[in-house]
Design goal:
Length: 344
């Protein structure tokens, strides 16, 4: 990922703008800290979010949480923004959730409060709600705030927008109820331990290590073992917030990453991308294209018949190397009934 979201030529402007952004965020957070404009809905709400713009692995964590709630006998619903959805079509993230969590009610709406009220007024209301990417969307009260920090990025040393990639200063971790340090298998132990100490200095919340473990591959609906990648020439094609993480995991799986086709997060793959991919594949012998589940929901809409390679995507699950008893206890506590109450 580049040092910041603006071109280097505009870095001096970004340096001037960052303090103003931080000041605006501080004023906004003070208002919410006082309870102004915060609405509590009539069921438990669990938020999953991050400090950085994109790429911390929140979608697999939300999927893990939804499956965990179903295993507990709950009837969860998911609310997400639905970013960059085309008219009449679900966003890439919504389509990915519908593939991964069949049977779970999913609603795409940037108005989390309105979406929650609509769900609770429906004929089949949920008994708990999960908010995707909602740490800074504080208008709806949450009973548990889970915040992700990507161990492969130097989040604690990053700067706020537009100079860096942080939506809020790292001091905002103080209001987290649990912090998940993600992708801890992709960095060395000393680095992980240092990040844990840095986070612990900012929040009293438990800090848990987590891994996005690849459990297999899918080619369409065909299942393949991860070992299929070992020694294989691959082209990585991704339009996600942190494509370097995909490449790192491919290399750990033994793949030979010969080329990459990387686009900005949420990019709508099209015919020109298929042509670009074909050109990359033409120089390789019996390669595979590896993409993500989020990208696959867009690739599958295209005519891929002319590609000289199969497109595969990893299946993954969240693994907690040291367990997640502390998080489990927090989820238990969050699911206790709460009285309805509105402020503001």
């Amino acid at each position: 990922m580049s040092p910041g979201p603006v071109p280097r030529l505009l870095t001096p402007v970004a340096r001037l703008a960052e303090p103003m952004y931080r000041c605006a965020m501080a004023r906004r957070n003070r208002r919410y800290d006082e309870g102004t404009d915060v609405t509590r809905v009539e069921c438990p709400v669990i938020a999953v979010g991050n400090l950085s713009v994109g790429g911390s692995g929140k979608t697999p964590v939300c999927q893990w949480l939804l499956h965990d709630l179903v295993r507990r006998g709950r009837q969860p619903a998911l609310i997400l923004r639905g970013y960059r959805a085309r008219p009449g079509e679900p966003s890439d993230e919504e389509a990915e959730y519908r593939d991964a969590c069949p049977g779970v009610t999913i609603r795409a709406d940037p108005d989390r409060v309105g979406a929650a009220r609509a769900l609770l007024a429906s004929d089949n209301p949920p008994d708990c709600i999960v908010l995707d990417d909602a740490f800074e969307h504080r208008r709806i009260h949450r009973d548990l705030d889970i915040v992700l920090v990507d161990a492969t990025r130097d989040t604690l040393a990053d700067r706020c927008l537009p100079l860096g990639w942080l939506r809020e200063p790292v001091a905002s971790l103080a209001r987290a109820d649990a912090v998940l340090l993600t992708r801890t298998d992709l960095v060395d132990e000393a680095d992980v331990a240092g990040q844990e100490r840095g986070i612990a200095a900012l929040t009293a919340a438990p800090v848990l290590r987590s891994i996005h473990a690849w459990t297999g591959l899918r080619c369409g609906e065909e299942e393949l073992p991860v070992e299929t990648l070992k020694g294989r020439d691959v082209v990585a094609a991704a339009a996600i917030g942190h494509p370097d993480a995909l490449i790192s995991q491919l290399e750990r799986a033994g793949a030979c990453v010969r080329a990459t086709l990387v686009r900005r997060d949420h990019h709508a793959w099209g015919a020109s991308d298929v042509e670009a991919l074909s050109r990359l594949l033409s120089a390789l012998e019996d390669p595979l294209v590896v993409t993500t589940a989020k990208d696959w929901v867009k690739w599958r809409r295209l005519d891929l018949g002319g590609l000289a390679a199969r497109i595969v995507r990893p299946d993954m699950r969240i693994v907690f190397p040291a367990g997640h008893a502390a998080l489990n206890d927090l989820i238990d506590a969050a699911l206790q009934p709460r009285p309805a109450h509105s402020v503001g």
